[in-house]
Write a structure and sequence with these properties.
This protein has a nine-stranded mixed β-sheet. A three-stranded antiparallel β-sheet has the order 8-7-10, with no helix packed on it. With 215 residues, the protein is an alpha+beta fold. Strand 1 and strand 2 form a beta hairpin. Helix 2 runs antiparallel to helix 3. The protein has three helices and twelve strands. Helix content is 20%, strand content 29%. The termini are far apart.
Length: 215
């Protein structure tokens, strides 16, 4: 694992080589952790060629152990081609949910699969949550940088496709404030379609978890 400091030397981005290295997010000086991994070429070629109408999309609160079955169900509903690569996607989504829930001691997760083809959330920001995992399976990854004055960061980095990033939000108690901000890359008009996994830890739901099928 390696650490990259911001220009003021206050905060760091942890570059994880293994899932265990993502625990660096709990370090006082760590604003985000990125698992540097590369998708299998066969999987990336497949996911890049799936019709946007067949990509899985959902938003649901559920326990981590139910993510696998939920992902399988939504792929079936959305008509995602049933093949080895679809199974890899489902397995990976489930594995990331387990890893993230374990790191955050979360009994429930907000599980989202978003299809993005516009300038969705293109402004740099810090989410009003404690912490979030984002993994872009298709298209350009999340962009991030450091800014202490709400201006656009002078240096903008892009998370590689297929690499999960764990980001602290405004509700993570930290001192001093890291100044790390992020955004979805502006892609409107490019013809690009992104598939993005988002995981947030949540408190136990007040009622039975509900699935939101977004197509």
């Amino acid at each position: 694992m390696s650490l990259f400091q911001d220009t003021q030397g206050i905060s760091a981005i942890a570059m994880a080589e293994t899932p265990a290295d993502l625990a660096a997010i709990h370090r006082p000086d760590c604003a985000a952790a990125i698992w540097r991994r590369q998708p299998l070429p066969s999987f990336q070629s497949w996911i890049d060629q799936v019709s946007p109408d067949q990509l899985p999309e959902t938003r649901i609160i559920l326990s981590p152990e139910k993510v696998h079955s939920a992902a399988s169900h939504i792929c079936e509903l959305c008509g995602t081609p049933n093949c080895v690569e679809r199974a890899r996607l489902i397995d990976d989504v489930s594995a990331l949910a387990d890893i993230f829930a374990g790191l955050m001691n979360a009994s429930y997760l907000m599980f989202r699969l978003d299809i993005v083809a516009t300038n969705h959330c293109r402004q740099f920001r810090k989410d009003t949550i404690p912490v979030r995992l984002i993994c872009t399976y298709r298209g350009t990854g999340t962009q991030y940088g450091f800014s202490m004055d709400r201006a656009e960061p002078q240096r903008v980095e892009t998370v590689p496709t297929g690499a999960p990033i764990i980001l602290r939000g405004n509700r993570w108690l930290e001192h001093p404030t890291s100044g790390l901000v992020h955004r979805s890359p502006p892609i409107e008009g490019s013809g690009e379609t992104r598939l993005v996994l988002v995981l947030d830890p949540v408190a136990a739901p007040d009622e039975q978890p509900r699935e939101y099928y977004l197509h």
